[in-house]
Amino acid sequence: SSWVHVVERIGRSMECEVAIDAVVNEVVSGVAYTRILKHVQYVKHQRRPLLVYEAREHLEVGQVEWMYQLKEGESKDPYRAYNSSYELFMVGKVDEAKEMLGTVDDGSRVMLLYRERLQKAATNHEACEPVGKIEALYY
């Protein structure tokens, strides 16, 4: 399967409207908030895990105050704690990831699945490992 197909399937399985990869995330980071959906080991193209994101709310950035609002937007990012938590989770720091996430919850399937993965990793006392085979992505 193609990488685009993988991104689309992850987005669909997590019930998000707009799933994007890291390349697109870099492009839209100044105009929309994004959050990490999942990290996957896509052996077909890369040896390192690739990230799949969800594009969320559009940032309101005017032409005149663009740079100021961009910095302000970063500090107001509603997904900052979630993304920071997920980054800790990816490197096996499960307890720190749970602490960083705290009580953040938007009621979405993405949040529910992430909390389940955190709990499973904490219970099994295992570091999070990226998925080894693309077929194992969908749970």
Shape: globular
List the strand order in the largest sheet: 1-3-2
- What does the radius of gyration come to? 16 Å
Low-pLDDT residue intervals, each spanning 5 or more residues: 126-139
H/E element order: HEHEEHHHH
Would you spell out the secondary-structure blueprint of this structure?
Layout: H1 3-13, E1 19-21, H2 22-28, E2 32-40, E3 50-58, H3 66-75, H4 80-90, H5 94-101, H6 109-124
Antiparallel strand pairs: 1-3, 2-3
Helix pairs in contact: 4-5, 5-6
Q: What do you see in this structure?
A:
This protein has helices at residues 3-13, 22-28, 66-75, 80-90, 94-101, 109-124, and strands spanning 19-21, 32-40, 50-58. The relative contact order is 0.16. It is α+β, with helices and mostly antiparallel strands. The chain has a three-stranded antiparallel beta sheet. Helices cover 45% and strands 15% of the residues. The longest helix has 16 residues, at 109-124. The chain contains six helices and three strands; from the N terminus they run H-E-H-E-E-H-H-H-H.
